[in-house]
Design goal:
By secondary structure, the chain is α/β, with parallel strands linked by helices. It folds into 4 domains: 76 residues, Beta-grasp domain (Ubiquitin-like (UB roll), Roll); 95 residues, Elongation Factor Tu (Ef-tu), domain 3, CATH 2.40.30.10; 116 residues, Nucleotide-binding domain of ferredoxin-NADP reductase (FNR) module (Rossmann fold); 31 residues, no CATH class. Strand 8 and strand 9 form a beta hairpin. The radius of gyration is 22 Å and the shape is globular. The relative contact order is 0.11. Bound molecules: flavin-adenine dinucleotide and FE2/S2 (inorganic) cluster (FES). The site of flavin-adenine dinucleotide has 21 residues, from strand 9 and strand 10. The site of flavin-adenine dinucleotide (FAD) has 21 residues, from strand 9 and strand 10.
Length: 350
Amino acid sequence: MSGTARLTVNGNTVTAPLGQTVLDAALSGGIVIPQDCCTGQCGTCRCDLLAGHCDDAGTRERNSVLACQARVTGDVEFRFDPVPLEMKTTGEVRALRPLGGDIFELVLRVNKMVPYLPGQYVKVQFSGFPERDYSPTLTLEGLRELDEIVIHIRRYETGAVSPAIGTLIKPGTRFKLRGPFGHAFLRQGQGRLVMVSSGTGFAPLWAMAVAARMGQPGRELCVVASARDPQNLYMRPAMDWLVRQGVQNITLCASGASPLPPARQGRALAFLPALKAEDTVYACGAPDMVEAVKALALQADAAFYADPFYAAPPAKEPLARKLLNFIRPKPKSPVHNSIAKLEREFERRD
Ligand SMILES: Cc1cc2nc3c(=O)[nH]c(=O)nc-3n(C[C@H](O)[C@H](O)[C@H](O)COP(=O)(O)OP(=O)(O)OC[C@H]3O[C@@H](n4cnc5c(N)ncnc54)[C@H](O)[C@@H]3O)c2cc1C
Ligand code: FES
């Protein structure tokens, strides 16, 4: 495809080569659309199509497309909601407490304040571990200081990072943080808010629910928080707070076994109210649950924002380790021990 077209983003127009992705074409013209993965997974670059046409590469949801996948095919106009600029900082773990089941609350003290919108996520690399995405939230009492990021983390036995929570990752552990990213953040609006979570998907839900209650108190709010294991229904105190603030449509549920009342047994989907076109729906947590809620929301023509907690891709083998494997000497050769020592060092750093 050759030729050019006019690409307008948030009122700024650039000349874009036909066939280029909207994200790249905008960037070549000096317009930065928020982005993270550039593979169509994180949703950070989702933009509303205001006029014209593009090849949406199968990413269309109502009137929005993913700018990192959609391609320019003619004159076209987009808009995205302004978000805080991506930044980097460092800090150390200030506090850690178990919240029940496999869930922990970590309070991270940051050296620079990190502006984010409730529902966005950040990337944290604890010293000696690979980077992971986490959704800043509040303590279950609804608190955080300005120099803090609060996260709820679930421990996965086979994970590269979460099994170290409470052992190698503890108060005093240093970290690097960058962000914020994500498109599933709370917006102002009319109509009912429906928020659904599974597991620690409750973290972004809680951040949004508190902000919604404080900032849009007249708006009806419906919350469904779920977990497979009843032990992981760590959000009970937060749900009690929502009840005290007048939120009536609240369900806590566990699918794996019968939980203590008032929690109910069953999957989140079973307790979702019938969705309407005026609703704004947020689904956070397990990707299959998020997809199922999305199908129902799109069917009802409701606005939908997804925050799927995809597992991080497996770490790439560092070049130095690849070289070591290539030149690996026979066991017991003179250099064997020093290479084994180097490998142990790589493992420690990974
Ligand atoms: C946008 C976004 C926001 C996120 N926010 C949070 C958050 O606030 N709190 C939080 O706890 N996590 C969150 N996650 C997930 C988090 O980034 C990690 O994927 C998770 O903590 C596991 O990391 P790990 O290094 O322990 O396991 P990994 O080394 O990444 O995974 C190893 C194995 O653990 C298991 N595993 C990992 N993740 C999952 C999963 N989600 N479901 C089932 N099995 C899994 C799988 O068997 C996987 O192969 C978020 C993810 C994304 C994409
Ligand atoms: S940057 Fe486009 S989906 Fe992640």
